[in-house]
Amino acid sequence: MNLPGLPVVRGAGPCVQHNPAPPRQRFPNLLPSLLRMRVRWIRKSHRWLGLFVGLQLLLWTLSGLYFSWNPIERVRGEDLAAPLPVLSPSDTSLVSPGRVLVALTRSTPTVEAVEAITLRALLGQPVYEVAYRAGGSRRYVLADARTGALRPPLSQEEAVAIARRDFVPDVPVREVTYLEAVEPDAEYRGKELPAYRVSFEHETGTRLYVSATRGLVTARRNDTWRTFDFFWMLHVMDYQARDNFNHWLLRALSVLGVITVLSGFWLWAVTSPWLRRRPRPPFPSGKRPANTRPVVLPTDGKNGRPEVPRKKPNL
User: Does pLDDT of 11 surpass 50?
Assistant: First the structure.
């Protein structure tokens, strides 16, 4: 005879029945209590967050793809730049930098401090580049390394010669512009002024900026850099200066983006069938617990099956 509600285990011997295991909880203990919230509310929140920050997430992804597919050397124009000129070690006719400092203090009495003195080549001649502070700003001046005399700012012809020497392709110059001020979002920003902008007739749309006071190419701009700068503006969300990535708009969208991703994981955890109740055997460990008592049923003695009582016919 079977006992109602108890599973029957058949074998070669007497049939044994065990007490049923307690029902499994719908949510395992390892899940946080927040997973008990309604799935409908989670789905709605995730949908509106995705609509609000989804466009910026797409722009971040597209800009990141462009950054990763373009080498930074090509963006900066360094792949078409010539090596820096060097000086001959046999040139021993150089004067002491102290004579240059004397000439500087005489011409500019407002010098507050001298930050650096650099010896380098300029159009095949040795010069001293002096970086100093005056009037609360950093300034530069060039001096002839053989005489100690201060040099005036570069002329347009000298700036074009420096740009031609720096740019490897032998192409004509399209335009030369003297810059004394630039817009905050211009391609030449945060650099020394005044400067000459030398534009070349090249397929890359290259423009070289030569500092009038330093005699150096301080920036190289091409079409790849301009596209990079556009995506950088979208990436850091600075639509004015294009260089500030510490503003509150970027911080707020970043936090909302993280919340959107976490809500997606949260929604998956709540609706995943893996975390729902699944049937399991009475004894998952394969052994009968010690606190259960088997119930032995009588068998028919032939196949080890429980004996089924037969009803007597009504006479």
Answer: no
